Amino acid sequence: MSITAFTRSVSDVAAESGVAPSAVRFYEQHGVITAIRTQGDQRRFDDSAACRIRVAKVAQRVGLTVREIAEIFAALPADPQPDDWGRVATTLIDEAESRTAALKAYLTDMRGGGRLCEIEV
């Protein structure tokens, strides 16, 4: 991807993704999105930054850490296409289903009336 594709400012990405500017910087710091610096040392992001943040917010609701999300996004090309996002969706769905199954098992164990400290985690 060429440098000219990095045209969005922190405030642009914040507005497009529905987060505060500080969150944009947080996601960049943790590798969820990537910026380049202008000669004036301002961050500039590509067109996928807001989408990546919105997907990251969903992934966080599933229970993934920012580090796990950054690892998933590391496999994305610079200009993700629908098939690329489809693979991310499959990963998130699989993770959500796995975590849901584990939570249901914990609920069953907690309802069993046994000692909570004996539940296997």
Automatic annotation (TrEMBL):
<dbReference type="InterPro" id="IPR000551">
    <property type="entry name" value="MerR-type_HTH_dom"/>
</dbReference>
<feature type="domain" description="HTH merR-type">
    <location>
        <begin position="9"/>
        <end position="75"/>
    </location>
</feature>
<dbReference type="InterPro" id="IPR047057">
    <property type="entry name" value="MerR_fam"/>
</dbReference>
<protein>
    <submittedName>
        <fullName>MerR family transcriptional regulator</fullName>
    </submittedName>
</protein>
<dbReference type="InterPro" id="IPR009061">
    <property type="entry name" value="DNA-bd_dom_put_sf"/>
</dbReference>
<keyword id="KW-0238">DNA-binding</keyword>
<dbReference type="Pfam" id="PF13411">
    <property type="entry name" value="MerR_1"/>
</dbReference>
